[in-house]
Amino acid sequence: MFDGLEMGIFPLIARPALQEMQAASGTVSEAFVGHWMGFITALFLVGAALGGLVFGWLGDKLGRVRTMSMAILVYSLFTALAYFAQTPLQLGALRFLAALGMGGEWSLGVALVVELWPEKYRPMLSGIIGAAANVGFVLIGIVGAGFAITPATWRYIVLIGALPALLTFFIQWFVPESHRWEQAASSGRLRPLREIIDGGHLKTLFVAAALGGVALVGSWGSVQWLPLWADKLAGAANPDAKAYTQILNGLGSVAGCLLGAWLGQRIGRRSAYFALCAGSFLVCQGMFRGLHSYGGAFLTLSFISGLITAAFYGWLPLYLPELFPTRVRATGQGIAFNLGRILAAIGAVQMGTLMGVFDGSYPRAGAVITFVYLAGLALIWFVPETKGKPLPP
Question: For the chain, what are the domain ranges?
Answer without folding.
Answer: 2-382
